[in-house]
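Worked example 4.2. Below are the chains of a multi-component assembly; read each line carefully before continuing.
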Amino acid sequence: MKKISVFLLLASFLINVPLTLADEGMWTFDNPPLKQWKERYNFEPSAEWLEKVRLASVRLNDGGSGSFVSSEGLLITNQHVASGQLTKLSTKERDLIKNGFYAPTRADELKTADLEVNMLVSYENVTERVQSAVKAGATDKDANAQRRAAISVIEKESTDKTGLKSEVISLYNGGEYWLYRNKKFTDVRVVFAPEEQAAFFGGDYDNFTFPRHDLDITILRVYENGQPAKTPQYLKWSETGPKDEEFVIATGYPGSTARLLTVAQLAYQRDFGNPLQKQVWTSRLDALEEYSKRGTEQARQASGAIRSFNNSLKRLTGQQDGLMNPRMFAKKEAEEKALKEGLAKNSALEKELAPAWKQISDAYTELPKYANRIAFSNLSASRLGTIASSLVRYGDEIKKPNNERYPEFGDARLESFKANLLSPAPIYPEMEEFLLTAWLEEAKKTLGVNDPFIKAAIGDAEVSEVVKRAVNETKLKDIAERKALLDGGADAIAKSTDPMVTLARRVEPIIRELRAWNEEKILSVDARAGEKIAKARFAVYGRTIAPDANFNLRITFGKVKGYEEDTTLVPYKTTFFGLYDRAESFGEKPPYDLPARYKERRDRLNLSTPLNFVYSADTIGGMSGSPVINRNAEFVGINFDSNIQKLSNRYWYIEEEEGSRAVAVHSAGILEALRKLYDAENLANELTGK
Amino acid sequence: MKKISVFLLLASFLINVPLTLADEGMWTFDNPPLKQWKERYNFEPSAEWLEKVRLASVRLNDGGSGSFVSSEGLLITNQHVASGQLTKLSTKERDLIKNGFYAPTRADELKTADLEVNMLVSYENVTERVQSAVKAGATDKDANAQRRAAISVIEKESTDKTGLKSEVISLYNGGEYWLYRNKKFTDVRVVFAPEEQAAFFGGDYDNFTFPRHDLDITILRVYENGQPAKTPQYLKWSETGPKDEEFVIATGYPGSTARLLTVAQLAYQRDFGNPLQKQVWTSRLDALEEYSKRGTEQARQASGAIRSFNNSLKRLTGQQDGLMNPRMFAKKEAEEKALKEGLAKNSALEKELAPAWKQISDAYTELPKYANRIAFSNLSASRLGTIASSLVRYGDEIKKPNNERYPEFGDARLESFKANLLSPAPIYPEMEEFLLTAWLEEAKKTLGVNDPFIKAAIGDAEVSEVVKRAVNETKLKDIAERKALLDGGADAIAKSTDPMVTLARRVEPIIRELRAWNEEKILSVDARAGEKIAKARFAVYGRTIAPDANFNLRITFGKVKGYEEDTTLVPYKTTFFGLYDRAESFGEKPPYDLPARYKERRDRLNLSTPLNFVYSADTIGGMSGSPVINRNAEFVGINFDSNIQKLSNRYWYIEEEEGSRAVAVHSAGILEALRKLYDAENLANELTGK
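Applying the procedure described above to all two chains together yields the following structure tokens:
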């Protein structure tokens, strides 16, 4: 009770005026920015409006967002969000990535291997229950365990009571805790996907740029009990799409922002975290590219991951450029200084909360020593390695009481964990061997031969020998084998002689040790001190700042609008004219080549039809596939990217005036393509309710 | 003899290797970069090739370049080069700027008011004659006068002997002097001009950018004795235009580069010259914009000048950004240091030449005190003021012997001077009054009421009174009146009571005094010290560096090629698809609106036809209208702009890898537009020889 009452008390005497800028913020549905909407856009949604939009906006557990666009389960997301599933459904003979796919009838729809879709059905503030679980005088480490135990109990209670997937999430770096209950769909089928060349026209070059010309969509359908799911809360399709300067909303599951981090945490990212991340991703990308040189089929297997790492690296580079910009960094320093000064106006609070900054900076001075080990001590470059590690970890955790386990093995989350482990997605042993070898070689080079992880993984042997045997002889490629180990439980897993499982078992103690170190020295400090800083921020600014994104449902807003760049103007939209111009201007040299149908059927198109557009809402990775919605809750487009001006918005909001924009596919362009290029008249009719 | 022999001697023991980079250099025809062409592009033009291209490449004395593209005098330049003449031919009822123009038969061709076209017929090195005219021990000022006298004699001799317009030009800041003989065409008629909205689609925003979509052309025809001139040395039209990566040449009359300036001269530009220029142009632009708000007709009158000042200011901003870039400025400092070090290897030469740098930097420390006065003490914001000042100056100069006059009043140049003064171009009194008032107000604000120019111009009166009377009562609007004064000579002009003439007469002593100061303290030092630095440069690098541009014929080269920008690719060309995309993407909001025929006749076009392209040649302002030529001396496009990456190339060459590009209209796009949009079949046939 004490802690909450402090918060309530504080809320009543805000020390400073709110800081929120322009169209800033990825807001939770419990605290939508009603004031900004009303003042800036004269928009006052009803509770029904908000509920409808929330229930229509779903999370794809592969990492991305989507929305329901028909009452019979049609769900639209990006091709690049669905591409993992499309790859899993592809074979050498049937390549859904290269050639796209369309199911003219429901019987033709293709069931995905392991896609899970979540809909946020209800939520509840459990801050008091979680925070009050921490006993007076507890160390950071103990406090962490006490909070985690409380969370496990809350999640299990809810799951038992409602049957819904129940997760407690933290907002404001531990300033609040909320119980989110999700309805889960696990039978998800593919209805339509364009050729990747249409979805990703311009490739990595045009990624994070605008003007843009991508049909980056995939249309799925969720099923329940073998029938299309009833989804009465869906977004009506707007056939005209948004106009210039129109107010729009985007809803979805932004993955991660770091705007509330302290300067010390940001400096760590800049000086160590990001460069290390770059090394990790670059080495994985290099291995994939090397592998894909082996042949067409190998290139097909690797292409999705290559696209994804290219994307991540381009984004990381933009983010790091932002952090390296002294002007921007100085702004963060000034922000922190202002918060501290605001806090200093209440000396009792200052005494309680102000030490948090130093606690964090002290903790982060230790991190660089461990960061390489934490980054490289794992088998996750390989799917078989990931499966083996998950099984071994499951075996160790499942023996413990629910509230003492790693959170991902809590009772409430086990079902999703198992479904993922038993996914029928294809495994390519040649690729597995290549990537795991490359990964362990890079780890060895970085950590040295005497590193505990390297010694445990390969001992005195050659990396290639160990990996070859593990990949070739493991039976984990077989789902039944995985299931047998899962059903056999801790004992069966502990006794398995499968060489991938034994490899995972050898390295598991090292991984656990590093995780324990990280939790004790970093994460628990982050949580405890983060909670204090959150309180300071509430005290100074109230609840007028949105929490950092963490892959939970958010609502953002802005307007459709072009911008200035390099002394000229960038328009708010592109058209099919622009697609053909760009293809012709490069003489169709890849990645500017067009699928055959685009050339054959060009004259069918109304080339003035808008294809992509930009808008000023505050978005970030994870909102790929988010619906863009007008004030009538109609679907006017689908978010799929942002421009380069926006990349460093991981660390701070970038104002509209600086040209920061989200990029979407236009609802009219989608219809034009479905009808004129893909002969998908049935689908277009279902979307438009005809 | 002494000076030349030193030069020849030096050429034989070059101290360092040549510095020329990549496709650098605006070369004179006496010294084309044959070595680079052969090595980089395997291109070895014959003497005939070079002569043909030289004779086809002409200067438009309004400031720009052009080329002959038929044997019967057809000449192509940019719409923005011809727009001054198009404006002069326009009236409220017949607006050639807004609506364009096409003469289907020769009888329809419209004679321009005062356009003069020059063709470089022959040239001769007169360095020895000019330099040896300077007597031993002469002061800088006397040396200047002695050189100038020698030049007047050379020009007059040549004019008398050949009947050609003969001008001595200086290259390498006085390192060389050349006599250029030009054939002059003064009967120039308009055949075709597009609507400015097509020539300048995207307006000032898209100026200096790429991708670009402008039909920036005007086609003229030169006449002699009332008949189309015979122009056997013309460029054959290429119907396909250039391919990606193709080698191309551009020829034309680049106005001004400042790459051989010393660091002291550049620092002056950066700290004083450019900011002052910006103030002057901004104040003139502001006045024009204010005036054009008065109504449609006023806007029409002002539009050409507004476009021109916008262009100049955008360019100046880019140039100044370059100078303000410490990395680039440091490069110039390093260049100067290297040149001095190279020179130091020959101590006799060093003793003779090295003091030049200090002489220049000493001189330039004085300039800021006078710069404002020099910039503002004139009447040239008004055409009537310019005419009056020219007359008054003519009256004073014509009394002197030829070789003591200001160069622009030398016998060899008098004919062009008079033609210009008697031009029938329209004068708009309302605009004259508005602009001259604004100019004198700005001058008064900048220089103060006690400044000699201000006192002479307006005394104790109000600016508006003085200007009102001068503009309203002057008879200089009448060509016959101007001719009478010209014919009356010094005496008639001195006695004129025309209030614009008396205004000009009052300020003339101030202008002369400032000019004298500038010539003595700055220009003669520039010339004398510049000559020394040129010698130092010849000694160290030979003649492998091109001279700075000064509005004389040059030949440049490079290749057609796209580039990288902001992490994506810019293609080497655009197509008509792109034009329609950009118009649609902005909802045709000006400056992205299209002329009516572009919409009505869209379906006639092959939209894949290339419209604009970029290439890597070293160009600068003044080369607007330059032909882009392939190795077969065919016309493949017309230069009309450069991208923003190239703007600071006034001060240094910017390498191709940095994305610096010239922008041209594609020869195929021109034909497509003429045929399909403008029904100019006759013209297209003449161009293609059909």
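Take a moment to check your reading of the output against the notes. Residues 288 and 302 of chain A are 6 Å apart (CA to CA). The longest strand of chain A covers residues 176-185.
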